[in-house]
Amino acid sequence: MAEGSHSMADLETAFQKFAVHGDTKATGKEMNGKNFAKLCKDCRITDGKNVTTTDVDIVFSKAKSKSARVITFEQFNQAMAELAPKRFKGKDQQEALQLLYGLIIGKEPTNVGVTRVAKAGAVDRLTDASKFTGSHKERFDESGKGKGKVGREDIPDTSGYVSAYKGQGTYDDKVKEGK
Questions:
Q1: Residue 43's closest CA among 106, 111, 113?
Q2: Does one domain contain both 94 and 139?
Q3: How far is it, in rounded angstroms, from Cα 106 to Cα 26?
Q4: Residue 43 belongs to what domain range?
Q5: For residue 177, what pLDDT is reported?
Q6: Domain count, the chain
Q7: Sequence-ordered list of residues with C-beta below 8 angstroms from that of 73, at least 6 positions apart, any chain
């Protein structure tokens, strides 16, 4: 290999990482158009000027087989060979391709825009049980921990005594006295 050239094994590793991204059934041998576009975006092959997302889609369509929806690693290399001179204008084909591979090798799909837990003040305010009033206040103990079912419903007294009866629990004593 020439000075400054990149190994195909490293390139194939990056290809496989992007090929399986977001697809649980993917083997890493073939890449779909969405993941190809993601690879181009994440590795900064698309720059908005020389190489646009449209260029990437066109090159992908050219590289894949007529009826296929995926490209193999060999087809991926053909697509990269077509994108390289566009991305690095003024460089010869081989040098441009090596620079392009340099952008890809060692990269993994990034999870940009993944939904994170909101840290807004409103959420904290709405979930602070100490600020609750009325019937909702009854659902939590002093520490702010929920009481569960006990705090949500009125549980009827099924002891057999009438509510507010003062002599509750004295029946057995009265029956024994009567004998």
A1: 106
A2: no
A3: 20
A4: 8-104
A5: 74
A6: 2
A7: 12, 15, 29
Over the chain (179 residues), what is each successive 10-residue block's mean pLDDT?
A: 63 89 84 91 87 92 92 92 90 89 83 60 70 75 73 70 75 74
Please check whether residues 27 and 51 belong to one and the same domain. yes
How far is 160 from 163, CA to CA, in rounded Å?
9
Same domain, yes or no, for 33 and 93? yes
* Residues 93, 97, 89: CA angle, nearest 5 degrees: 60
Sign of CA dihedral 130, 132, 135, 136: negative
Which segments of the chain are extended strands (E)? 30-32, 70-72
Rounded-to-integer distance, Cα 109 and Cα 6, Å:
20
pTM above 0.90, yes or no: no
